[in-house]
């Protein structure tokens, strides 16, 4: 059993320099490094356990505990000569003995010796005596003057002993060292560290209350020894190991006043200087290498960038090809007939919107809204749907327009082109339907022309040139009589812009610029004075009767005056969801009802007369509601359901068959297959229905967002201002936090405050999304752009300016005011975490806004989530103190990852806590306090970065899925 990791040699031990005795248990006393085993040693005195070298003195030219460190070349040569004088030729071929020198820099040439004072205040408070650490660094023992005497162990190993007031406390060794040597500095990284605390030595259990035996015996892993020559010529070193760093800080155990000295042949120094400036052992370092994690991270970032670039190039090629093909294609509209048969619609009697659709057939208790409607409109015809309020006009319009309905729909809607002979010919599978809603939902910050150009850019084919699009917009504005307001902003309720009537016309214009095959409008004249209303209907009539592009136009009208009424070619009169009349307009409906005992009074507006009848229809009218257009809709061609764009046999839906059909029957078995087809009518527009490519959609959307941001700077500046004020407040609250234990808690408090602030700020993302949702719904229903393009544009013009930039501002102000780690690396790592956190929280709020139609519910859930993540962040309650049944919830706390990464980053700067506890000075690493107080792991920074990335990716994917599946019109 040899102490000091001596090597057993029969009954004796071979000991490292500085200790001796049979079991290497005694300190040497005087003598020189070259005296080897013959050096005198000190026996324990007066019943002490260990020998004490404090009374020993070194010969001239030697220093340090154990006298291993040379101070002059002459000391080396004379010591060497006196022991090995007759063997000097073996060590140097050229210089002989005279070339021996004492190198006094931290750099090691063969085997270096040093002896340093340990002056840490915490150690000093516990052990006020003199603490010294001796370290022997073995670079290349074969180059020493006397291998195995002045060296010990294999190349690339280190041996150390800690002495307290002359008594050895513990010893350590490590191997597989890599050395980076330069003039004036030395950095060794070794592995397999082991240390042994000498039983019942002063630090190792003699006084149990101050014993560090457990810690010392457990030291393991990697060891670094860093030494530098200071400007005043002294040498300072640090002893770095994970446990030691967690106690004394990132810079490890500091050692001052190091006495370094190596007796070495000048030829070895010359060879080292001539050869490689960084002499090293066989295990020497080849320089700093990037860690695997960093390489993997860089690879992922690189791959992402490449993928983005690839997608962009692909998008660009697709865009270019789309622009090239069919450039001569004319901007043509109309030419498609629409016919419908057996249209029935019912909603649950409870009047509530069904969450789960159970089946397609009507169940008992369903409320029938529409009963067996059939009809047809050809290009060049303008149809008015008349009826009192609640008669089913909007519902009919919705179904003809292919809108997604919450109730059950049955029947078929068909589209076909017209032959030159005026007969329906080929079915149209993918008709372009222009749909103008009852409400005007318009981009308030754009001018009329910009709004129309936006629609033209997205809804006209790529092959149409920009000039053609502008010309189309101009033509539509002229047609609608809105040329003189083309540069006026549309405005909103809060900020007045164009009038209600003008808004109606802009809404119609948005559809007209897309050159629809069929135009369907829900109450285009509502809210307009009679002059404006007449103008609007005139426009519709002109569009329908356009000699070049005759178009089928359907409009529901609430109460048309006689002038407006006369403009319609055909009329459909609805009463309680039933068709009272369908046929030619003008005087024909009057004659029809006169024949059934309801003559129109002379001079009375026929439209009013029709409304009177429809408001209070007699039973016989309801039961015998006939259709004038019977002959026109008799089956030709094929049926195309608007939703599935599939073909079906029209024979099943001839008007004769649907006439007078009992709606109950219509919704029952015989219609089940048809109904099923219709139940999938709620599918969103297919990708192929977008007329512009993805890149164009993104470009145009970004263009609009940019304009809005430029015009409404108040939102942007409000965010910046709020960020600056909150930053100043938080920075003031934690102004220049101290480095005491209380100060450290404030530091983490400051980080927590910042994280919570960003969590709550992200709520505004939720609100913004809820606000713009109606516009998105309308534009999505009109196949303007894909939801992915919209989300990306939100990212560029909401997330970056309104989330990321304010985050950078508030974080920067707080960082420097609170006095956090004052170096660039830690500052940027701090910003990086907060930006990731902001992104994750913003996406989470977007997700809520898209999942819940009710903004109140979304906001409530977001607030509860914030409370949850704050609770499990580790600041309010120590994570390991949470009962196990709840503890797992911490893994969902985004704020925990953010706070941990921020705290680790802060203490990783080498933050040292300096405090006095009950008179005992404390100087420990903040890392230790962080572990104790908050349970954060000191190596978790990159893990937390990865987790935040994972949350961002998860929320992003969920958001895209939800937007595609859930955020769409349902009426
Ligand atoms: N999802 C629904 N749930 C319950 N009832 C509905 C639903 N959709 C429509 N209805 C009912 O169907 C009837 C017809 O509604 P619709 O909106 O089509 O009438 P309208 O003729 O357009 O009325 P208005 O002229 O007042 O707009 C109304 O009584 C309405 O309450």
UniProtKB/TrEMBL annotation:
Location of the ABC transporter domain: 350-601
Alphabetized PROSITE patterns for the sequence: ABC_TRANSPORTER_1, ABC_TRANSPORTER_2
Residue span of region Disordered: 618-684
Organism: Serendipita indica (strain DSM 11827) (Root endophyte fungus)
Keyword Plastid included in the entry's annotation: no
Record-linked PANTHER family: ABC TRANSPORTER G FAMILY MEMBER 28 (PTHR48041), PROTEIN SCARLET (PTHR48041:SF139)
Domain of life: Eukaryota
Record field: transmembrane: 290-317, 714-734, 746-770, 791-818, 830-850, 857-879, 945-967
Annotated Low complexity bias: 623-634
Annotated Basic and acidic residues bias: 642-677
Membrane topology: Multi-pass membrane protein
InterPro entries attached to this UniProt entry: AAA+_ATPase, ABC2_TM, ABC_transporter-like_ATP-bd, ABC_transporter-like_CS, ABCG_transporters, P-loop_NTPase
GO CC annotation, single: membrane
Keywords: ATP-binding, Membrane, Nucleotide-binding, Signal, Transmembrane, Transmembrane helix, Transport
UniProt-annotated location(s): Membrane
Entry keyword annotation includes Aminoacyl-tRNA synthetase: no
Protein name (database record): Related to ADP1-ABC transporter
Molecular function (Gene Ontology), one example: ATP hydrolysis activity
Record-linked SUPFAM superfamilies: P-loop containing nucleoside triphosphate hydrolases
């Amino acid at each position: 059993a040899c102490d000091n990791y001596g090597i057993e040699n029969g009954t004796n031990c071979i000991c490292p320099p500085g200790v001796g005795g049979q079991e290497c248990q005694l300190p040497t006393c005087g003598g020189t490094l070259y005296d080897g085993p013959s050096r005198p040693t000190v026996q324990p005195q007066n019943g002490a356990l260990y020998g004490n070298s404090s009374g020993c003195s070194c010969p001239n030219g030697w220093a340090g505990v154990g006298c291993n460190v040379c101070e002059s070349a002459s000391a080396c040569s004379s010591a060497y000569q006196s022991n090995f004088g007759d063997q000097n030729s073996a060590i140097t071929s050229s210089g002989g003995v005279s070339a021996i020198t004492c190198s006094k820099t931290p750099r090691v040439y063969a085997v270096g010796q040093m002896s340093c004072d340990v002056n840490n205040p915490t150690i000093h408070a516990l052990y006020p005596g003199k603490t010294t650490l001796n370290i022997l660094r073995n670079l290349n023992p074969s180059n020493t003057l006397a291998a195995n005497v002045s060296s010990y162990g294999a190349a690339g190993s280190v041996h150390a002993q800690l002495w307290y007031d002359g008594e050895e406390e513990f010893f350590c060794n490590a191997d597989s060292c890599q050395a980076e040597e330069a003039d004036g500095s030395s950095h060794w990284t070794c592995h397999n560290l082991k240390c042994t605390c000498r039983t019942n030595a002063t630090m190792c259990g003699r006084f149990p209350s101050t014993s560090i035996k457990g810690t010392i015996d457990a030291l393991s892993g990697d060891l670094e020894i860093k030494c530098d020559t200071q400007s005043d010529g002294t040498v300072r070193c640090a002893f770095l190991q994970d446990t030691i760093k967690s106690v004394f800080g990132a810079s490890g155990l500091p050692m001052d006043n190091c006495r370094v000295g190596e007796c070495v042949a000048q030829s070895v120094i010359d060879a080292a200087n001539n050869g490689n400036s960084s002499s090293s052992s066989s295990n020497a370092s080849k320089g700093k290498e990037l860690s695997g994690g960093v390489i993997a991270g860089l690879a992922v970032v690189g791959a992402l960038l490449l993928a983005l670039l690839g997608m962009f190039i692909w998008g660009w090629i697709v865009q270019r090809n789309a622009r090239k093909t069919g450039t001569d294609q004319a901007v043509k509209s109309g030419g498609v007939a629409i016919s419908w048969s057996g249209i029935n619609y019912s909603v649950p009697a409870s009047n509530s919107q069904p969450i789960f659709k159970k089946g397609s057939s009507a169940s008992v208790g369903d409320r029938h809204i529409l009963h067996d409607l059939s009809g047809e409109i050809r290009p060049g015809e303008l149809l008015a749907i008349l009826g009192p309020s609640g008669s089913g006009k909007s519902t009919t319009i919705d179904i003809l327009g292919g809108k997604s309905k919450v109730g059950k729909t049955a029947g078929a809607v068909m589209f076909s082109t017209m032959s030159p002979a005026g007969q329906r010919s080929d079915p149209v599978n993918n008709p372009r339907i222009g749909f103008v809603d009852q409400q005007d939902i318009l981009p308030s910050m754009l001018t009329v022309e910009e709004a129309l150009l936006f629609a033209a850019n997205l809804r006209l084919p790529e092959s149409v040139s920009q000039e053609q699009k502008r010309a189309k917009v101009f033509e539509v504005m002229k047609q609608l009589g809105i040329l003189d307001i083309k540069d006026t902003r549309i405005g909103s309720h809060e900020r007045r812009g164009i009038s209600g009537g003008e808004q109606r016309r802009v809404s119609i214009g948005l559809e007209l610029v897309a050159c629809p095959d069929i135009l369907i409008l829900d109450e285009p004249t509502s809210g307009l004075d009679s002059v404006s209303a007449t103008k609007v209907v005139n426009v519709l009539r002109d569009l329908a009767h356009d000699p070049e592009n005759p178009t089928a136009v359907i409009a529901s009208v609430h109460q048309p005056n006689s002038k407006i009424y006369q403009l319609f070619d055909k009329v459909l009169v609805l009463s309680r969801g039933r068709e009272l009349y369908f046929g030619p307009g003008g005087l024909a409906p009057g004659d029809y009802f006169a024949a059934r005992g309801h003559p129109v009074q002379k001079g009375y507006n026929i439209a009013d007369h029709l409304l009177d009848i429809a408001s209070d229809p007699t039973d016989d009218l309801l039961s015998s509601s006939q259709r004038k257009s019977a002959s026109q809709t008799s089956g030709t061609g094929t049926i195309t359901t608007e939703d599935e764009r599939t073909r079906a046999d029209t024979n099943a839906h001839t008007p004769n068959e649907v006439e007078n059909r009992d709606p109950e029957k219509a919704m029952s078995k015989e219609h089940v297959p048809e109904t099923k087809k219709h139940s999938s009518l709620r599918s969103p527009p297919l990708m192929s229905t977008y007329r512009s490519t993805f890149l164009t959609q993104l470009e145009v959307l970004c263009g609009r967002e940019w304009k809005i941001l430029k015009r409404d700077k108040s939102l942007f500046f409000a965010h910046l201002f709020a960020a600056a004020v909150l930053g100043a407040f938080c920075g003031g609250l934690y102004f220049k936090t101290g480095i005491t234990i209380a100060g450290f808690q404030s530091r983490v408090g400051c980080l927590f405050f910042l994280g919570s602030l960003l969590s709550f700020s992200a709520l505004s993302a939720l609100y913004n999304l809820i606000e713009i949702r109606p516009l998105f719904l309308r534009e999505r229903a009109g196949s303007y752009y894909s939801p992915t393009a919209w989300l990306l544009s939100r990212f560029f013009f909401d997330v970056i300016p309104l989330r990321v930039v304010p985050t950078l501002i508030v974080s920067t102000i707080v960082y420097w005011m609170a006095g956090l780690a004052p170096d660039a690396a830690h500052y940027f790592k701090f910003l990086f975490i907060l930006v990731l956190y902001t992104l994750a929280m913003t996406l989470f709020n977007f997700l809520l806004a898209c999942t819940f139609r009710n903004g109140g519910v979304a906001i409530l859930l977001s607030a509860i989530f914030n409370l949850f993540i704050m609770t499990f962040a580790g600041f309010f309650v120590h994570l390991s103190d949470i009962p196990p049944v709840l503890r797992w919830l911490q893994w969902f706390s985004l704020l925990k990852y953010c706070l941990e990464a921020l705290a680790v980053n802060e203490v990783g700067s080498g933050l040292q806590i300096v405090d006095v506890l009950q008179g005992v000075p404390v100087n420990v690493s903040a890392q230790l306090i962080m572990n104790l107080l908050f349970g954060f792991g000191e190596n978790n920074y990159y893990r937390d970065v990865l987790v935040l990335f994972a949350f961002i990716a998860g929320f992003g994917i969920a958001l895209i899925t939800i937007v595609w599946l859930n955020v769409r019109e349902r009426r």
